[in-house]
Amino acid sequence: MPDYRRARATGATWFFTVNLLERHRNTLLVDEIERLRTCLQVERSRRPFAILAWVVLPEHMHWLWRLPPGDSDYSTRWRRIKTDFSRGLSRSERRSKVRQSRGERGIWQRRFWEHQIRDETDLRHHTDYIHFNPVKHDLVARTADWPHSSFAAYVERGVYAPDWAAAPSLKVPGDR
Q1: 21, 154, 160, 165: which has the highest count of C-beta atoms within 10 A?
Q2: What sign does the dihedral 137-67-73-80 (CA atoms) show?
Q3: Where in the numbering of this chain does the Transposase IS200-like domain appear (predicted)?
């Protein structure tokens, strides 16, 4: 079995991508957005962390978290959020023989992708990427039209204009 090694910087800021196992035509995350919100709130009450930016799409999501000083354990947080989310859902998903033998659900991809934010430019780039994602995936024509993200809070704080990334041909600042 592979030995997955993750960075362990305490108090760092992290960008995450978390995917459902079955991504094709799956809308579980937006269908169950309140369940997801509750799971995040519960985990934040158990093990605090700051959410800087987020977007939830039908079958995957992106998050920017800042962990408290002295804390580097984002893996446990994600495991608990994914486990809590899965509990209570009907067991109708397809499961491989391996997942069945291990007693695993077939909802989430086992792993997630993380990136430690290096500096303010990197943070800004990843925040833009998060908020542009619904347009990138052709879910909406304007970033402001996607309800499942932190974009509206950023507009309210004056970080973005309400019409930021409104044109379908617009590229995210910093993309090549």
Answers
A1: 165
A2: negative
A3: 9-133
Q: Dump the DSSP string for 89-145.
A: S-S-S---HHHHHHT--SSB-S--EEEE--SHHHHHHHHHHHHHHHHHTTS-SSGGG
Q: Judge contact between 94 and 22, C-beta under 8 A.
A: yes
Side-chain-side CA neighbours of residue 107 (13 Å): 21
Instruction: With a cut of 60, say whether residue 167 has pLDDT above it.
Output: no
**Coil vs helix vs strand at 42:** helix
Cα distance between residue 17 and residue 59, in whole Å: 11
Name residues whose C-beta falls within 8 Å of residue 155's C-beta, 6 or more positions apart in sequence: 144, 161, 162, 164
Q: How far apart are CA 87 and CA 38, in angstroms?
A: 12
Cα-based distances in Å from 106 to 23, 74, 81, 115, 154: 12, 22, 15, 25, 34
Q: How confident is the model at residue 111 (pLDDT cuts 50, 70, 90)?
A: confident
- List the 113-116 sheet strands across, edge first: 50-56, 60-66, 13-19, 113-116
Find, among 159, 165, 174, the residue nearest to 133 by Cα.
165
